[in-house]
Amino acid sequence: MLFLNSLKRTSSEEEIRWAWFRYDKPLLLAAVRFLAHLVNQKVVGETVAIELLHILLGELSGDTVEIAVAFVRECGAKLREESPRVFDMVFDIFRRILQEGGLVFD
Fold it and tell me: How far is 69 from 64, CA to CA, in rounded Å?
């Protein structure tokens, strides 16, 4: 079972990397949603989710924020349970983005 979990995690991470470098937004959204479901089912820990949000919100653009919002919509409740301080920080970033309003959407 442990091998299967690591295989799922590795394949989803590779899919996210592939979509990120190809700028394939639909594939990236699908991979991020899949990873969110893995977080919800406790196949992948919340650390992976936090790292992904850190990467997405580190480079602010319309697409990265849209993908981060989709990710938080899918596994936000689980993140709120597991690490509420990080969840609050993510929402502070979202709030700041909304207040500044300087994003460019492609």
Answer: 9
> How far is Cα 31 from Cα 12, in angstroms, rounded to an integer?
6
| pTM of the predicted model as reported, rounded to 2 decimal places | 0.80
Instruction: With beta carbons less than 8 A apart as the criterion, state whether 104 and 66 touch.
Output: no
Backbone torsions φ then ψ of 33, nearest 5 degrees: -65, -40
What distance in Å separates the CA atoms of residue 37 and residue 59, rounded to the nearest whole number?
Answer: 24
Retrieve residue 38's tokens. 């893995």
Strands (E), 39-103: none
In this prediction, residue 85 carries a pLDDT of 94
Per-domain residue ranges of the chain: 23-100
Q: Identify whether the C-beta of residue 91 lies closer than 8 Å to the C-beta of residue 56.
A: no
Distance of alpha carbon 3 from the chain centroid: 23
- Give one DSSP letter per residue of 59-101, joined into a string: S--HHHHHHHHHHHHHHHHHHHHH-HHHHHHHHHHHHHHHHH-
